[in-house]
Amino acid sequence: MIAFSTGSLYTYGLARAAHLAADAGFDGLEIMVDDRWDTQDAAYLTELARTVRIPILSLHAPFRPGPDGRRDEVERLTRTVDLARAVGARTVVVHPPVRYRWVTLRYPPYLNVSVLTPFRQVTRYHRWLRGELDAYGAGIGITVAVENMPRHRLGFRTVNLFDLNEIRDLRHFPALTLDTTHIGTWGVDLLDTYQVLADRVTHVHLSNYNGRQHRLPDDGSLALGPFLRALHRHGFAGAIVVELDPDSAGAGDDARVRERLGRAIGFCRQHFG
Predict the structure, then answer these.
(1) Are 35 and 60 in contact, with CB atoms under 8 Å apart?
(2) Tens-place pLDDT, residues 161-170
(3) Which H/E stretch holds residue 110?
(4) Exposure on the CB side of residue 129, measured as CA atoms within 13 A
(5) Does residue 93 sit in helix, strand or coil?
(6) SS3 8
């Protein structure tokens, strides 16, 4: 199944993004759940899927606190699982825990300086993912797939801002979302990385990397054609979700969006079969 992440057009309304995905010929949707009511309302999402005539295959759990102040990552995850069950989605994508946070230091009267500082202790979410996710996932009928995250360049260093985001950590999870553009930021070979993680990969976020993340599949240095063919040979049965940046998707010009989404899905069908 080739799906489209509504996060690719987060600057659009959800219905508009869904209709454009359907027009392009995608098999399904991944809903990026955020603080907008229409991404959280099961009845609305069900009706939207019926109207555009493609199913909701997956939900991406919120990675920021909601408007009601919910800061607990475990609660955000479990609420998203409940929503997935209500709309018939089979996968929930979650991020690993953040390792660092920005802290603003204030030097009166005028100077405010933001610095990146590590958490001083392991978070509840970290402990839950390592100790409770297996048992939780076994009884819900929904796959909770942890996504590998990018590395960021700070000055002359590349920094991993997330806990549980190394290969050795990811292999502990029962299910993974392999994000190709994030692998691009690691500076490692995509196919080699997939081979190491293949038995855990149940979901894919597909986009290229050219120094910027979430580019069109044919715009970057990643070997996405061979990667899709490797998925096919491996008998991959999950969803391949095209996840772009709005500017890469052509946001602001619907004719351009249709052309670029057509390019993306054509690339996927050519190489995945």
Answers:
(1) no
(2) 888 999 999 9
(3) none
(4) 28
(5) strand
(6) helix
238 torsion bin: left (phi>0), alpha (psi -120 to 50), beta (else): beta
86-98: b (≥16 Cβ within 10 Å) or e: ebebbbbbbbbbb
Q: Are 56 and 241 in contact (CB under 8 A)?
A: no
pLDDT at 242 over 70: yes
- The DSSP code sequence of 155-203 is TTEEE--BSS-SHHHHTTSS-EEEEHHHHHHHTS-HHHHHHHHTTTEEE
Label residues 210-248 b or e (16+ Cβ within 10 Å = b).
eeebbbbbebbebebeebbbbbeeeebebbbbbbbbbeb
Amino acid in the structure at residue 174: P
Mean pLDDT of the chain: 90
Measured between alpha carbons, how far is 116 from 118 in angstroms, rounded to an integer? Answer: 7
Element (H, E) at 5: strand 2-5
- pLDDT tens column, 57-115: 999 999 776 555 456 889 999 999 999 999 999 999 999 998 665 545 565 665 665 54
Question: SS3 letters for 208-225?
Answer: ECCCCCCECCCCCCCCHH
Percentage, residues of the chain above pLDDT 70: 87
Backbone angles phi, psi at 205, to 5 degrees: -105, 120
What is the per-residue pLDDT for 34?
92
Contact 148, 163 (CB under 8 A): no
Cβ atoms of 243 and 7 closer than 8 Å = yes
17-21, 56-60, 90-94, 115-119: the lowest-pLDDT one: 115-119
Is there a contact between 207 and 216 (Cβ–Cβ < 8 Å)? yes
Fold of domain 2-272? TIM Barrel (3.20.20)
pTM of the model: 0.90
